[in-house]
Structure formats: structure tokens, C-alpha cells
Amino acid sequence: MTEVLFLEHVDDDLLKFAAVVSRYQGKWVLCRQKDRDLYTVPGGRRKDGENIEETARRGLYEGTGAARFRMAPVCVYAVREGAGSQTYGMLYYAEIQEFFAAPGGGSERVASFDALPENLADPLVQPKLIQRAG
């Protein structure tokens, strides 16, 4: 069973992912996975030498084309798969002011929604992240 935990702090070197719950003009902004009809929160895996905020900013920019945005940390999250290991990430919230290409206006990988779609990439994790940050 997948479990999502929200924490105040963990050692920085444990943070491997950043997730950025985002809104634009009051709508949720999500990325469509390539070749699949599933949507996900922008973000990504931390690269060597990156701090976790850089990971979040890069993930938001690469995933959505956001040119200007206000972003703030929400909390640390952990995803635990059964009795196995857990992975840690930093959850952020962003208000996007401007895109290089607006959602739905040419980029098939970005969409905006009034309400969250049912076809989320990870239905056991994504809704909990969105609820916590949104």
C-alpha cells in the first residue's frame, strides 16, 4: 500500500524530488505525460549539484513553460511503498503569472483545469500533494 506522509524537515541530502502544485488564473496547471492520457503535477528529480528549489524551478519551467511565477515551499513529503523504503521530496506551491506558451495554446503537454481531472498519473499520491499545497 502506498502511503504519503507530510513532514516539517528532513536532511537536505534525502530530498530527491520536487513537486510544484501550480495555478494560473485560478486554474490548476498540470503536465500530460508523453504518449499517455495521464496528468501530473510539474516537478522532477533532483540533479547532481542542484539545490531542491532549483529542481522545483527547473521542473516548473521545463514542464509548463512558466516564464514568471511566485513559488513558495509548503513542506517535505515522503512516499512509502508498503514495508519498503520511502522517498522524500519537497512540495511547493506556485502562482504562475506568465507562460512562454500559455496552457492549451499550442503545448499538448500542458493543460489547465477548473477542477482536477480523474486521470492523474499517480492517483494514490498526486491528489494528496495537491490537497496539501492547494
Provide an overview of this structure.
By secondary structure, the protein is an alpha+beta fold. The protein has a single domain, classed as Nucleoside Triphosphate Pyrophosphohydrolase (Alpha-Beta Complex). Helix content is about 15%, strand content about 45%. The protein contains two helices and eight strands; from the N terminus they run E-E-E-E-E-H-E-E-E-H. Strands 1, 2, 3, 4, 5, 6, 7 and 8 form an eight-stranded mixed sheet that branches. The protein starts with a strand and ends with a helix. About 30% of the residues are buried. The mean pLDDT is about 90.
Entry keywords:
134 residues; alpha+beta; Nucleoside Triphosphate Pyrophosphohydrolase; eight-stranded mixed β-sheet; 16% helix
What is the H-and-E element order?
Answer: EEEEEHEEEH
| CATH superfamily placement | Nucleoside Triphosphate Pyrophosphohydrolase
The largest sheet is: 8 strands, mixed
Radius of gyration from CA coordinates: 14 Å
Helicity, as a percent range: 10-25%
Highest CATH level, the class: Alpha Beta
Number of strands: 8
Q: Can you tell me the residue ranges where pLDDT is under 50 for at least 5 consecutive residues?
A: none
How many domain units?
Answer: 1
Please, how many helices?
A: 2
Shape: globular
Strand content range: over 45%
User: Which structural class should the secondary elements be placed in?
Assistant: alpha+beta
Please tell me the CATH architecture by its name.
Alpha-Beta Complex
* Separation of the first and last Cα atoms: 24 Å
What is the assembly state of the chains in this entry? single chain
Please, what is the average pLDDT?
91
As for the CATH topology, it is Nucleoside Triphosphate Pyrophosphohydrolase
